[in-house]
Amino acid sequence: MSSTKRILLGVSGGIAAYRACELARLFVHSGCEVQVVLTPAAAQFVSPMTFTALTGRRAMLEDDHDGGSEELYAHLNLTRGIDCMVVAPATADCLADLAQGRGHNLLSACHLSCQAPLVLAPAMNVRMWEHPAVQANVELLSQRQALLVGPESGSLACGDVGSGRMAEPQEIHDRVLEQLSGEGAVFDNGALAGRHFIVTAGGTREYIDPVRYITNASTGTLGLEVCTALLDAGATVELLETGIEIPRMLRPRFARIAQVRTAYDLQAELSRRLPEADGLVMLAAVADYGPAQYISSKRKKDGDAWSLTLTETPDVLASMQHLRRSGQVICGVSLEDSDWLERARAKARRKGADMLLAVELGGDLPFGRSKLNCAMVTGDSVIAEPGWREKHELAAMTAQWIAGRLSEDATGS
């Protein structure tokens, strides 16, 4: 980091509070000044002295003062000049306090006096996380440009399994420093204000009969990360998806969500919607082949071999170049196992895409992984060199590149 960053780390009262110790240590190791504020409930899980020892600064509790003026205005002094406020774990009660603007403890009072970016790492039982009241609070905080990291799915302290685990401290640390270093798009929330984008995600389904289909492996995760980056940069987003899992908290942020099935369905929807958009980010994994003939009733298992004739599906991205208007940005993705960079550049030229995310299909398949070996290319050059990147990092880079491209087009440079 080029200069010391000042982090205010809020710790609320959940079993995941012990993991905030590792987060504090990581920030300190990165050269940050870390001040910890605990709620009384958090202090029941982890002693304030632990954080004091880790950070070299006295961890603060609202009842840990003698009434002097310095402590009386602690919530103002603690937030003055900080670069970021991070709350980890953020329990359901804590999220409610922050969303409703309460200031009944030192942590929530600090939030009210804080003008720096806010990062939240939710942690709670899966049933609590999925409750409409909690999701409403999360959505309200997201609309105010809070960055949520997690929660993750897995085994919870109570024995349940599902979403609710606090994100890994390393993940929270990396997201915070990424944003503060200017490499992310989340805190630059005006770069795409007033712009409208279409994003496609998931693998198309080319049906053989009513229950069987050919598809491409795709979780849609990269598409959803790109949607989030565009939304955080102020854009409105339409999502065309193929039955992927969309987080409940993300759904209300879309201007529209439409489900498509086949390559032909996707092509038809894009042909209708593209003229009104400022850009398209085509991340759907379109199946290159589909059955030559659809069977209208389910084929019964009869012991005989079944031979299928496959035909090519339309090249959806390439077909959009004939519909695009001046000033639009069209991006896509290329997944190849050999000569993957050069093949991606050739695709960009052939398909008329302004930029492609080039992803290497190595022996360790990328589907469902958080990191990809990837680059950003145009038909003429490599604009981001190959490297292993988290999907959210690649999404932020994509949103920033799009914002820069639209800005160049607007100024005529």
Keywords:
413 residues; alpha/beta; eight-stranded mixed beta sheet; 19 strands; 34% helix; globular
In short:
The protein has 15 helices and 19 strands. With 413 residues, the chain is of the alpha/beta class.
Helix content: 25-40%
Which consecutive residue ranges, at least 5 long each, have pLDDT under 50?
64-70, 183-188
Shape: globular
Radius of gyration, Cα only, in angstroms?
24 Å
Largest beta-sheet details: 8 strands, mixed
Please, what is the oligomeric state?
A: single chain
Order of strands across the main sheet: 12-11-8-13-16-17-18-19
What is the number of strand segments? 19
Number of helices: 15
Assess the beta-strand content as a share of residues: 15-25%
| Terminus-to-terminus distance | 32 Å
Roughly what is the average pLDDT, rounded to an integer? 85
Derived structural class: alpha/beta
Overview of this structure, please?
The protein contains 15 helices and 19 strands. The chain has helices spanning 19-29, 40-43, 48-55, 69-72, 74-79, 92-100, 106-113, 126-129, 132-143, 169-180, 221-232, 263-273, 316-320, 340-351, 391-411; strands at residues 6-11, 33-38, 84-90, 118-122, 147-148, 152-155, 161-165, 196-201, 205-207, 213-215, 236-241, 256-259, 279-282, 289-291, 310-312, 329-336, 355-360, 371-377, 382-390. The longest helix is centred in the C-terminal third of the chain and has 21 residues, at 391-411. Mean pLDDT is 85; it is low at 64-70 and 183-188.
